[in-house]
């Protein structure tokens, strides 16, 4: 019950938040792909959830150029202020999981 109330309390993300979080996930996928051929399933669910949230917030379905620019900005952020980068990525992942992006991991 508490999880359901928390889910209802989470506001819809803005377009900027959704696109930034999708960029975080695209960068995460790139990082993992450099180290391993296997990218865990929840990663894809979270990336796709943020893609849907961006579309719901008004993003065009073909926003790859926007995401690429945001990924570049995140690369810079990761070098210049890694704590802020890590906090942003963690918030994106946590928000998506709490929002039900990953079956079996979110509110029940």
Return the structural class. mainly alpha
Number of helices: 5
Low-confidence stretches: 1-9
Order of helices and strands: HHHHH
- Sheet with most strands: none
Approximate helicity band: over 70%
Give a count of the beta strands, DSSP E runs of length 2 or more: 0
**Amino- and carboxy-terminal Cα gap:** 8 Å
Strand content: under 5%
Please give the domain count: 1
Mean pLDDT comes to 88
Report the radius of gyration as a whole number of Å: 14 Å
How does this structure look, described?
It is built from five helices and no strands. It is mainly alpha-helical. It has one domain. α2 (15-35) crosses α4, α2 crosses α5 (82-98) and α4 crosses α5.
How do the strands and helices of this protein lay out in sequence?
Blueprint: H1 2-9, H2 15-35, H3 41-56, H4 64-80, H5 82-98
Helix pairs in contact: 2-3, 2-4, 2-5, 4-5
Structural features:
108 residues; mainly alpha; 5 helices; globular
Compose a concise summary of this entry.
The protein has 108 residues and is mostly helical.
């Amino acid at each position: 019950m508490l999880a359901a109330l928390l889910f209802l309390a989470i506001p819809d993300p803005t377009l900027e938040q959704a696109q930034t979080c999708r960029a975080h996930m695209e960068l995460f996928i790139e990082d993992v792909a450099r180290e391993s051929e296997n990218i865990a399933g929840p990663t894809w669910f979270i990336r796709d959830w943020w893609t849907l949230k961006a579309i719901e917030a008004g993003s065009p379905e073909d926003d790859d150029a926007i995401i690429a620019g945001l990924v570049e900005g995140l690369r810079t952020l990761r070098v210049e202020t890694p704590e802020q980068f890590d906090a942003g990525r963690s918030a994106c992942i946590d928000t998506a999981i709490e929002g039900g992006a990953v079956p079996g991991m979110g509110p029940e």
